[in-house]
Amino acid sequence: AGLEKTASVEPASTALVPAPVDIANKLRYLFGRNGDYTVTDAYQGTAWSVREKLIDSFNKTHDHWKEEDPKFIYYLSAEFLMGRSLINTVYNLGLDGEYAEALNQLGYEMEKVADAERDAALGNGGLGRLAACFLDSMATLDLPGWGYGIRYKYGMFKQALKNGYQVELPDIWLTKGNPWELRRDDVKFEVGFGGRVERRKQGNKEVTMWTPSEKVIAQAYDNPIPGFNTPTTSNLRLWDAVPLTEFDLSAFNAGDYDRAMLERERAEGISAVLYPNDSTPEGKELRLKQQYFFVSASLQDVLSRFKAVHGNNFDLLPEKACFQLNDTHPTIAVAELMRLLLDVEGLDWDQVWTISTKCLNYTNHTVMPEALEKWPVKVMAKMLPRHMEIIEVINEGWTKWLAGHLKDLAPEERAKRIAAMSIIHENPWNKDEMLVNMAYLAVVGSSAVNGVAAIHSNIVKDEIFNDFYQIFPSKFQNKTNGVTPRRWLAWCNPELASLITDTLGTSEWINDTEKLAGLRAYASDKAFQVKWAAVKKAKKAKLAELIKKVHGDEVNQDALFDIQIKRIHEYKRQYLNVLSIIWRYKQLKKMSPEERKKAVARVCVIGGKAASAYDMAKRIIRLVTAVGDVINKDPDTKEYLRLYFLPDYNVSLAETIIPAAELSQHISTAGTEASGTSNMKFQMNGCLIIGTWDGANIEIAEETGIDNVFVFGVRAEEINQLRKERKNFKTDPRWDELMRDIEGGMFGDKDYFKPLVDSVNNMKVGNDWFLLANDFASYLKAQEDVDACYKDQSEWLRRSIMYTAGSGKFSSDRTIREYAEDIWHVKPCRPTV
Ligand code: Z57
Question: What positions are modified (N6-(pyridoxal phosphate)lysine) (predicted)?
């Protein structure tokens, strides 16, 4: 008894229980609550109730996919910046009405309840949020596809301000449980590190054996991803690192309690914390460990499912599975897929190389050389000795092939080209160290390489990987980023969404954003403009409420709401924004009260986190808060100008800020922002853009009408030359004045701001690397154009409508369709209802 198979019993779906009863049941049986619910209770009861509907949909989808056995896309990413799930889940599943009503019966409002959820912040910024938007679109388009990543115990740190300086607090997001995940106790894989590699004769075959010195278990957690307006619910599988044996009993018998506990800590450390750097890699060993950990578990998982259906017919693998490498972080997959097929499955090199390169594709997200990952050979050889060997063999084959391919070049030139394309090369800053260039490994080891906006993909082809492009031109593609119109328009701005739906006479635009173009016909319609303005006003009131809560200040809600929210980075030039705000302040100060009344009032908001070790970024935050402290208190000007730093910028804060924005700033040095994605979210919400000719700004301007966008600054093609000529650049007298102001202590903290002034103000080569001084004058001019336009509210509203109308291209549905067709060759597979 107990060993026989249990009789099969079909469970009754809780979909049959009315939502209010189900919520009360969850609260009683999961939380021991009987009435007197708090808002947090209401959230928990609702979330655990909705979870079951989500799992029903998830199961149906996966039963169907199992039966159909379609080709799958696996999106490998070290980051998934999911944000909150409740609102997205009920809306995507079409349960919003039912649950809003249920909550009303319990005496709660959906919006307030939703606010009790903590963000899942398993990402830094654009790269991680892009991965989250892609999952939404893959599910919505019924594409068989999963995300794979790490279940960090601590996500992106919480940012607080202390006396105007950033302080970092841990993001302890799992303490109250997570209703959106499902632990799969039957899905675990061993992942090894270190140790040695041996060769043995097995019959007449030589086999390679890697004996790791350290092992951990990767434990799977599934996070169902509901599509919108479809029965499809796909999956994000995240791995948690746990020790090999829950408690190593022999260690306890030997009285070695400390060692066993340390072992646990070492294992758990692998998935403990997200590295808080956006677009600058952290060269720490633990980071490489994290990368290999999730890549190895994911590949083992896919291969085990493949084998269960197709046995050892691995030549079929490229027809059943493909992997997208989200930046270089998962690039160790090139060597791991080789190792699994060579050493574990016993195939031979040439066959494995063909399979592996067919299955893998790589997306590049940055062109800044310091942001391209390179691991010291020494580090990799110690942690992943077998992988280092495999990479060496790949590189030998590659350079040999290159020698043949370039045989017509003069020997010297040929050697130079080969050295420049070698996956393993010297560290240019330290001749004693050899590095593995992960981007080169990804380019050589994949079928397709793509950039994330048109200009970026051109830089990828013409500059950073030009040598490779010349050899494999057809490998290189562009896939302009997109964002999900569900979260970033329909669900975060329901007021605008209903106005759009009423106007177009259909809500089909939520799945087919090209339909938004229908709004162009209303752009100059005065009656429509009035309605459009009313929505913006309501959203501004909400943001004003938030500013009041955080800073205690009332702001003028008729002022122009001017927003810059993104990670703090020198290349994104928040500093340039602050300089123009100081300039505006000084101009206002000089005006008579009568003159001031004619000025356009602005409420400026800046938000974003600085990587904890990024000193200059932290100084920029302090400059923002210090300038705000002076401006916001000045009785002469405070009616006309405010500057607030909103701390802890994250996905849910973005959902409040973006719908309220009237002007948003995307002012990176041309050629440095690969794409940007918040620019698309602002555009969808009818927010005008002031920006440089960079990243996706260019395509946004094309779609919106270039005359509707405030474009300024030098172009990407001029940058190299301008950097060389830095010494001869003559700064604007207004710039010199501002430098003296900051240096002279106008905003206090003189010493702390000195390095900021010095970083842009010494006219020598290498200084002001991001060319703030060069763009300063044209930026001020563009800001004057903004003011002039805002004074003509009808023209401003016309443009605002044109932005939303022109945003159709920037749905991640479009992006994902392009990936599916041009790279993945994956087709929709929709479960029947
Ligand atoms: C990151 O958020 C991005 C690139 C990186 O290499 C890393 Br690491 C993190 C961003 C780019 O900076 C954005 O321009 C881009 O829109 C985003 O990735 C998504 O492609």
Answer: 681
